[in-house]
Amino acid sequence: MNLYDIKNESLVAEGKLRVEWAARNMPVLKSLRGRFEKEKPLQGIRLAACLHVTTETANLMETLKAGGAEVRLCASNPLSTQDDVAAYLAIEARIPTYAIKGEDNETYYRHLKNVLEFIPTITMDDGADLVSTIHKESRQVLSTILGGTEETTTGVIRLRAMEKDEELMYPVIAVNDAQTKHLFDNRYGTGQSTVDGILRATNILISGSVIVVCGYGWCGKGVSGKCKGMGANVIVCEVDPIRALEAKMDGFAVMPMIEAIKNADVIITVTGNTTVIDEHHLENAKDGIILANSGHFNVEINVGRLNVLLYPNVRHVPMLKNLY
After folding, report:
1. Fewer CB within a 10 Å sphere, N or C end of the chain?
2. Would the pLDDT of 324 be above 70?
3. By percentage, how much of the chain surpasses pLDDT 90?
């Protein structure tokens, strides 16, 4: 088996510079790495990681390796993969990495299996696809696994559903429940990166725009606050009555999606749920609306029905492209 599957090996130098830059803003991880290099607390651990392959993740992987762990990494979201970082990890850091930006579903799931082929003892997941694959297709791995971690809201929701149905076969730490995760990363990190992604893709003026945010969890709070701070007229759509009340008390307009979409210039879904924007919503949207999803999976907007509405007379419609 190949020890990596990346897009371009020539991007190593560029990836190294970016990983080193990110390390300057990760002092806690740097401190842990110094300890790990001496103490080797993870000696003998085989760790399979399914995470966003970015500069920050690269520093985490190097820290785990410094601690003695044997590490393999694949992408938890093909759209967020940074190809230069993947090249650096695979070639110079010598961490088996399977990630290509924009990879199709077949490649994505092949990469999941690639990181499981060395029979891990610990899993590190972002979205629960790795855990799900183990339980559905690689159950032989279960006998060796000590436990795992899950980083994001969507993944924790999936795992709790498995636990409720008595299907989860090994313990998983819900990292997303840590206060330093959801209070800060979800709120401030997601808030900033979501707006940044929309601006890079569209170059619209946020100030004065009507922006609808679907979901008022910690990520939704961050997105709403960032848009409000930039001068947008923010409307929140939230099915949980307590969170809806909180959004109202925070100064946001709150209304059902079927009403909010009529005046929206931009809609941002950040719920962790499926089909938040469906056909009957889209039929009420004004022309030129911008749809964006900041949830972990690209299922919050019914893209299939959107394509049919856009191309009603085309038998095989072109799929809308994801912008990251």
Report:
1. N
2. no
3. 86
